[in-house]
Design brief:
alpha/beta; 5 strands
Length: 174
């Protein structure tokens, strides 16, 4: 009730550090869970770590990440001449409420996950590389901001990677 009753500034919150292993993934997952499950806010958790995403691994959703992940959405975006739609995003997210709430089976569709890369080699593909990756992340976060109250991003550490830089430039809070 406390989280739901308080007034918060909505937007894109990115978790970033110059070093791997600093706890970014854990903080991003916990923040998204609190906002969605306790606060009742529509939340999207984006695993944007191009060094291989760990959100799916930590949540036991690795098999889902192999089927649909941020690289697939980036390829869709590139195929559509750098356009992204709400329908494209909806087709690529994993509805996490049912996964988190197996005991009560209450599904309110408040938490969606855009899972990260199951392998690092996917980060080297054209849809996520350089300026293309930077523009994709910028456009993705712009759309997500319109679709969700909160967008929580687990970002990779290197600013030399276009997708990571796109997150940092588009986030409301880092």
């Amino acid at each position: 009730d406390v989280v739901g009753a308080m007034s918060f500034k909505t937007g894109v919150i990115a978790f970033w550090s110059t070093k791997g292993g600093a706890g970014k993934t854990a903080l991003a997952i916990e923040t998204a869970a609190v906002l969605s499950q306790l606060g009742g806010r529509r939340t999207l958790l984006v695993d944007a770590n191009m060094n291989a995403g760990h959100v799916a691994l930590r949540l036991g959703l690795y098999e889902h990440a192999e089927k649909s992940n941020i690289a697939h959405l980036a390829a869709d975006y590139m195929t559509q001449k750098n356009r992204i739609t709400a329908q494209m995003l909806a087709q690529r997210v994993f509805k996490a409420d049912a996964h988190f709430d197996k005991q009560t089976k209450i599904v309110q569709n408040r938490l969606d996950l855009l899972l990260g890369l199951p392998t690092v080699k996917l980060a080297g593909g054209d849809p996520l590389r350089g300026k293309q990756g930077e523009q994709f992340m910028h456009d993705l976060l712009k759309l997500a901001r319109e679709q969700y109250e909160y967008v929580i991003v687990d970002n990779g550490s290197s600013v030399a990677i276009g997708a990571h830089l796109g997150v940092l430039s588009a986030a409301d809070l880092v």
